[in-house]
Amino acid sequence: MGLSWQQGPLSAGAIGHFLTPEPVPERLLFAERLRRRMRVRFNNTWIADSESVVLLHEPGRYPVAYFPREDVDGEALVESGRVTHHKDLGDTAWYTVRAGDRGTERAAWEFTALPGHAADLQGRIAFAWRAMDAFYEEDERVLGHAADPYHRIDLRDTSRTLEVRLDGTVVARSEHPVVLYESGFAPRWYVPRADIDETVLRPVEGRTFCPYKGLCDYYDIGDAHRAAWSYPDAYREVDRISGLVSFEPDKVEVRLDGRRLDLEQGQIVVPHGIDRGLEADEAESH
Q1: Using CA atoms, how far apart are residues 163 and 174, in angstroms rounded to an integer?
Q2: Among 68, 74, 128, 233, which residue is least crowded by beta carbons within 10 Å?
Q3: Distance (Å, rounded) from C-alpha 136 to C-alpha 49?
Q4: How far is CA 88 from CA 112, 169, 196, in A?
Q5: What is d(CA 197, CA 178) in angstroms, rounded to the nearest whole number?
């Protein structure tokens, strides 16, 4: 499962615990060789291309890819003079990334005073995900953040009854929802549109991008903002949820076989690096 984010074993909101006689440290960082080819594109230029990426799992953050310096175009990195301090990994030097006539400040970083136990990250460069034009694994673009190799999604049909209400009014009722089990998340229940009163769904601006499911649309329901979401064209691995709608149980009343569902804690993670945002047409070009 996802190691360090949502409710994974290395996250602050872990739902399980290690069976050890002594308490484990409050923060555990985990680094490993990715064993996938990863590339970075900036201003129509490939600035990094490596089969030796190390993925860092840090509590409460998405995984971050670190490229060996020898696999990064040296001319793309311009020292900025800016140094910050990481609480676990020491001094962090920041770079402006430049290619052709374009440059972006604080778009890459390197740990320059690593403790001995973190030598796996020595001489490695990380790029702020959304400061770059795109990241790829082989020839396929990865959206949102680095894909966690421990992340898994399973879809299951069910005959349980899911009902959604707002202020006593039935918004949806289905006897054949699809349940999505995703590493680090509580189960998410997706409802066919035929079982929804679509007149109450008001599309809102602002989409999100998931490296595992694709491009996500959101809906207001009455005064409940972004209370429902849908992947109109989910990736082929999870295409059973394409067009189906899921509802946020802290914003509308969601009942499963009569039992009201509550939003579980630990569902928020912090992106690493600056965020330029992505446009919908970029995601659709995946």
Answers
A1: 7
A2: 74
A3: 9
A4: 12, 50, 48
A5: 18
Pairing of strands 178-182, 153-157: antiparallel
Bridge partners for 55 per DSSP: 32, 65
Query: Could you read off the pLDDT of 205-223 as tens digits, one per residue?
Result: 988 888 889 889 999 999 9
pLDDT tens by residue, 126-170: 999 889 999 999 998 888 788 888 888 999 999 999 999 999 899
Which is more confidently placed, 14 or 128?
128
3-state secondary structure of 131: helix
- Angle at CA of residue 174, ends 171 and 179, nearest 5°: 110
Exposure string of 198-219, with b = 16+ CB inside 10 Å and e = fewer, is eebbeeeeebbbbbbbbbbbbb
Single-letter amino acid code for the residue at 217: D
Separation CA 147–CA 12 (nearest Å): 20
pLDDT of residue 61 exceeding 90? no
* pLDDT band with cut points at 50, 70 and 90 for residue 274: very low
Q: What is the pTM of this model?
A: 0.75
How far from 17 is each of 12, 23, 44, 183, CA to CA, in Å?
11, 10, 45, 16
CA–CA distance from 184 to each of 62, 153, 205 (Å)?
12, 10, 27
CA angle, 277 then 78 then 274, to 5°: 20
Tokens read off for 53 = 């990426």
